[in-house]
Design goal:
The structure is a single chain. By secondary structure, the protein is mostly helical. It has one domain. It contains two helices and no strands. It holds the Pfam family Methyltransf_3. One of its GO terms (biological process) is methylation. Keywords: Methyltransferase, S-adenosyl-L-methionine, Transferase. GO terms for molecular function: O-methyltransferase activity.
C-alpha cells in the first residue's frame, strides 16, 4: 500500500495497468490522467 500525495507516488509506480479508474480530487484529474496514461498497457481500457 502506498500512502501520500498521488502526484509524488504515481510516478514511482513501475507497473503497467490494463484498466485505470480515477476517483480522486477532481481538480487534479488532468494531472493524474497525464501521470497514468503512460502506464496503461497497449490496448488497455478498450472494450
Amino acid at each position: 500500500m502506498l500512502i501520500g500525495d498521488a502526484t509524488h507516488t504515481l510516478p514511482r509506480l513501475d507497473e503497467q495497468f490494463d484498466f485505470i479508474f480515477i476517483d480522486a480530487d477532481k481538480i487534479n484529474y488532468p494531472t493524474y490522467y497525464d501521470l497514468l496514461l503512460p502506464k496503461l498497457s497497449s490496448g488497455g481500457g478498450k472494450r
